[in-house]
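Why predict the complex rather than its parts? Because the way molecules touch one another can change local conformation, and only a joint prediction can capture that. The input here totals 284 residues.
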Amino acid sequence: MTDTPNATERDFWSGPSGQSWVANQEEMDRQMAEVADLVLHHAQPGPGQRILDIGSGAGALSLLAAEAVGPSGHVLATDISKPLLDCADMRGRTIDHMDTFLADTQTADWPAADYDLAISRFGVMFFADPAAAFANIARALKPGGRIVFAAWAPPQDNPFWRIPTKHAVAHLGQPPKIEPNQPGPMGLADIELACDHLTNGGFDNVEGRVETIHLRHTDGATGFASLCCRIGAAKRVINHFEADEKAQQAIENDIAAEFARFERPDGTCAIPAAINLLTATKPA
Ligand SMILES: C[S@@+](CC[C@H](N)C(=O)[O-])C[C@H]1O[C@@H](n2cnc3c(N)ncnc32)[C@H](O)[C@@H]1O
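Output of the joint prediction:
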């Protein structure tokens, strides 16, 4: 995959950020387990179905989908990042009905009209041309096939983004602001715009709703704050300013202090999260 309209994202997800995601994959999957449940609850994958997992990353959603469709079905985990897809491949190595495909969703040359369902957990917000990418997903679906995905709602509705960013910026300064609706974690935060992209990509019955779930960490507020300084909002600021260990620890401590209000009596930390849940159908 030498030429792609999404080379910046490919390089981001194939470099240290993607590798960090691989290294922290178990912790990330526990954190985002309810988001996977949300997608699968709305997608309802059934035995024998053929499923495309878009931006599958390390394959957590693909593995759950493979369990749901069983050996008579098939799951294709597809992603632009080789290290992440290699991880998905390794995790699915004993599952004959799960494969991986390294491709840019926007331009992937996959067979037409081959899949019943396209699903994604946070893998569809990074396209330079979202309508073109959704059109290419629609092309892969059978007539009447569905797409179901989760994307982040705006950061102001998500303490998981708002709090780490606030503390990292307070310690280090403001990195260049990402313009709204540009490729990135908040690329589909505007739910109306996300619906428009699906419609412009050729989908019918487009529906978007905001759902509240919880992101979880088993090691309480400190464990959660530590993860935020390795992947996500605080990490972006830390990377930009090349912050030293001392500054990172100070940021982590401040995030942990504020996350403490989300701790549960069992020692876990559960942060409410607003998720844009989108569903649509390829015209029959
Ligand atoms: C936030 S991660 C989510 C990974 C996975 N879905 C999960 O929930 O663990 C976003 C994923 O989208 C992938 N991605 C970004 N742009 C892409 C593109 N144009 N085509 C395919 N995958 C892409 C990244 O490589 C990354 O694995």
